[in-house]
């Protein structure tokens, strides 16, 4: 095949979204979707159906979010991202007229296995980074605190759901529409540039942003795009992204992209070493340690290959691409022949 399996899968539908459509569409979907989700969230909050001790202060939104408990934070993440994910999926089904399987979300059972594989990889890498820095005397971590009962587990589960929707939605956008569709239309290099640029810019307004943090976002984008290409699926990268955030913030107790999300953590970790290594207030994502983690993740992903179902869809996509090219060539020839 002239293109990677993951890109050829996008050809299995009737249309492939071009970059000049994809970028503004994603911006529109996220602006409208997050606004709808936020309105629903604050309606629930105002009705007293969520945490009842929050003082609404939209001018200092970050400070207000810091007062959210884990359940409230999980619901906020869920609502503000689920309405961004829905229009992306509708666009694939209605405009591009192709299946979710061709988008990288086929075969639910095997897909969950891929999701779990990505999740386990993220937890393992986060553990290696945390305990590696601890062994070097650059991080101080408390012992893991096992929740004593279900009332303590529930907030973490709600927060995990929120992280799952948040991370997965970002991957549907950045590595789905902005990587797969753009890659099928414009090629690998353009797909990497656009998906990485949009993903990095979207996180550029986070708290405690540093140049190294932004570099790591670009490297993360390149790695996760490589992961999607190796697996020819979105399942694995959705699991990796969701668990990367949850493990970093709520298992090992670091800041996530510069912010602490949710009050419940199994551990508390404090960076004591050089900020350029540990990330400091940015969380591990702001340090060189993340480059090591991404390198180890890349080695692990090298063992993954597309499954037979993905290759079948890609074969259909390749046939469609050939047919489209022939139709364009015939149309040009007919137009040229019609000229006097």
Account of the protein in words:
- The longest helix is centred in the middle third of the chain and has 37 residues, at 150-186.
- This protein has 13 helices and 2 strands.
- It is mainly α and 340 residues long.
- The protein has one domain (5-324).
- A two-stranded antiparallel ribbon has the order 1-2.
- The mean pLDDT is 90.
- The protein has helices at residues 5-9, 19-46, 61-65, 70-95, 100-105, 108-135, 150-186, 188-202, 211-231, 235-251, 275-278, 288-301, 308-338, and strands spanning 139-141, 269-271.
- The chain crosses the membrane at residues 21-50, 74-94, 115-136, 148-165, 186-205, 211-230, 242-263, 283-304.
- One of its GO terms (biological process) is CAAX-box protein maturation.
- It comes from Aquisalinus luteolus.
- InterPro entries: Rce1/LyrA-like_dom.
- This is Abortive infection protein.
């Amino acid at each position: 095949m002239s293109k990677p399996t993951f890109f050829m899968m996008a050809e299995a539908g009737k249309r492939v979204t071009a970059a000049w459509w994809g970028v503004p569409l994603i911006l529109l979907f996220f602006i409208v979707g997050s606004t709808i989700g936020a309105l629903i969230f604050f309606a629930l909050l105002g009705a007293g159906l969520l945490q009842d001790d929050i003082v609404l202060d939209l001018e200092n939104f970050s400070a207000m979010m810091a007062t959210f408990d884990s359940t409230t934070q999980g619901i906020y993440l869920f609502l503000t991202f689920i309405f961004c994910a829905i229009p992306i999926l509708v666009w694939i089904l209605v405009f591009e007229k192709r299946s979710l399987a061709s988008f990288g979300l086929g075969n639910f059972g095997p897909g969950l296995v891929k999701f779990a594989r990505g999740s386990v990889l993220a937890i393992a890498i986060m553990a290696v980074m945390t305990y590696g820095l601890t062994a070097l005397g650059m991080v101080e971590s408390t012992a893991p605190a096992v929740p004593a009962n279900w009332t303590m587990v529930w907030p973490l589960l709600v927060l995990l759901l929120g992280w799952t929707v948040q991370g997965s939605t970002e991957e549907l956008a950045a590595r789905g529409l902005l990587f797969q569709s753009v890659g099928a239309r414009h090629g690998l290099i353009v797909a990497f540039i656009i998906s990485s640029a949009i993903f990095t810019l979207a996180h550029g307004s986070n708290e405690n942003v540093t140049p190294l943090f932004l570099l790591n976002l670009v490297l993360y984008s390149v790695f996760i795009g490589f992961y999607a290409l190796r697996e020819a699926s979105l399942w694995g990268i959705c699991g990796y992204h969701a668990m990367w955030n949850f493990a970093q913030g709520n298992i090992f107790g670091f800041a996530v992209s510069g912010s602490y999300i949710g009050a419940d953590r199994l551990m508390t970790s404090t960076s004591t070493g050089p900020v350029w290594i540990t990330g400091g207030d940015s969380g591990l994502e702001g340090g060189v340690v993340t480059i090591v983690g991404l390198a180890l993740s890349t080695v692990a992903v090298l063992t993954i290959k597309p499954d037979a179902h993905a290759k079948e869809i890609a074969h259909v996509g390749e046939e469609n691409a050939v047919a489209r090219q022939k139709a364009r060539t015939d149309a040009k020839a007919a137009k040229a022949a019609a000229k006097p």
